[in-house]
Write a structure and sequence with these properties.
By secondary structure, the chain is an alpha+beta fold. Helix content is 19%, strand content 30%.
């Protein structure tokens, strides 16, 4: 899958100006944020953003149809129960950087060996309403692996065709009430999976840079 690797390298190496991956709204050091579609939300400034890394793992197990691996969080979790997410999490003290954090978390959450991903690059970071600065790490998986969902954390591991996620027409903006206000967010549904919020926003960023 040389063509895909080269296309990803070219897209991820493009210079990113502030807000380019989003709507043009400045978001500190992040390329996009949960506030892009919600200008009425008051963002406390300055505020400390905690670094996190997530893995955008593109499986080439079926070379004719690359697929992105995602997880469905356990419904028993206190935060974001049942939501769709990338494998990943906050940068721990022992992590060298966001890439190390993303690889470690993917091993812990879905059993992905840390030496298997072929890391291509990073998407612009995304600032969440919960004060995380999340960096999506894009990698190719040239080999299959035995998926082992982390008990109590991950309810399901599934994949979505990359072609679906790279099609901007698959994305919509929806809204719901949140803390007494109307909050807008991106969605990119696939079959029974409702992918929304920060995960959909970062996937939309990938679709945009690949255009």
């Amino acid at each position: 899958m040389t063509d895909l690797r080269q296309a990803l390298q070219a897209a991820l190496s493009k210079p990113q100006t502030q807000g380019q991956a989003g709507t043009g709204q400045a978001t500190g050091e992040a390329g996009s944020s949960d506030f892009d579609l919600n200008p009425d939300l008051v963002v406390p400034r300055p505020r400390r953003l905690r670094p996190a890394g997530v893995l955008v793992a593109i499986s080439l197990a079926q070379p004719e149809q690359p697929r992105v691996i995602l997880t469905k969080r356990s419904s028993a979790l206190k935060h974001h129960p049942g939501q769709i997410a990338f494998p990943g999490g906050k940068v721990d003290a022992d992590d060298a950087d966001v890439i190390a954090a993303a690889l470690r978390e993917a091993w812990e959450e879905i059993g992905l060996p840390q030496d298997l991903p072929d890391v291509i690059g990073q998407l612009p970071s995304h600032e969440t309403v919960t004060s995380f600065q999340v960096t999506p790490v894009v990698a190719l998986l040239h080999e299959d692996f035995e998926i082992r969902p982390e008990v109590g954390e991950v309810a399901e591991v599934f994949s979505v065709p990359l072609s679906h996620l790279l099609d901007p027409t698959k994305y919509t903006v929806a809204a719901r009430s949140w803390r007494g206000t109307r909050r807008h967010y991106y969605t990119v549904p696939f079959g029974p999976y409702y992918i929304w919020g920060a995960t959909a926003r970062m996937l939309f960023n990938l679709a945009k840079v690949m255009q």
